[in-house]
Amino acid sequence: MPTAVLVHGTWHGGWCWNRVRDLLAAQGWTVFTPTLTGLADRSHLATRDVDLETHVQDVAGVLDYEDLTDVVLLGHSGGGMIVNGVADRMPQRIGHLIYLDALVPSDGQTVFDVIGGDDVPALIRALAAEKGDGWLIPAEVFSAQDFGVTNPADAAWLESRFTPHPLRVFETPAKVTGRVAEVPRTTYVNCEGFPLDFGPRIAAQFTASGTADTQHWPTGHNVFVTEPKRVVELITSEA
Q1: What are the tens digits of pLDDT across the range 149-178?
Q2: What predicted TM-score, i.e. pTM, was given to this entire model?
Q3: Does residue 239 register a pLDDT over 90?
Q4: Contacts by residues 60-68 (CB-CB < 8 Å, ≥ 24 positions apart)
Q5: What is the number of domains present in the chain?
Q6: 44: containing domain
Q7: Residue 120's CATH number
Q8: What is the rounded distance in angstroms from the CA atom of residue 74 to the CA atom of residue 102?
Q9: Region class of 101: left (phi > 0), else alpha (psi between -120 and 50), else beta
Q10: How confident is the model at residue 238, as a pLDDT?
């Protein structure tokens, strides 16, 4: 039975994959949508010590304890940092690694490094200091509309579920040894409607290196809400 593990991004939780999960399940897939420590239904576990390593262990533990192999591992947005770390540790368990408009670090890079520039990191740190006791990023940096979700009901659904995100996750250097290259298949999708420019930059890097199939979609960042069938087609596609 084919298996997918879907990893959400900043401020989200496993709940955000409901539409994609249900469509995949209807096609006979087994789907895991773990919520990362400190977010959504696990927000009660948020502490100053939650960092990128915590989240990598969250997802690695699913693959390990569920004894998953040949899995499609997908990370959205900030979730790209996490699936990259997981794939680097256990490439033998992954058949297809998908970065969905996601951050992809080199060894030693933080989320802030991959985003680039000074404006967004400065804004995030300022909001954390002002409204997050210095260690939580409030869920107001971006709106649902910034993520490309314009339907009022969908936007309200999203924004009612966003939760603050541990700042330390953004400040932790990634640990990447190069084993991620052992994954048989990698795809990077740039959603062209997102205001930040990391997607086009990372897609161009993958195209230049030839280490991933790159795709450019004329969609918003949260395409799993607005066009779940497109995401399902990506996950179920054959090489």
Answers
A1: 999 999 999 999 999 999 999 999 999 999
A2: 0.97
A3: no
A4: 60/85, 60/86, 60/89, 60/90, 62/5, 62/32, 62/34, 63/5, 63/90, 63/93, 63/94, 64/90, 66/32, 68/3, 68/5, 68/32, 68/93
A5: 1
A6: 3-236
A7: 3.40.50.1820
A8: 9
A9: left
A10: 83
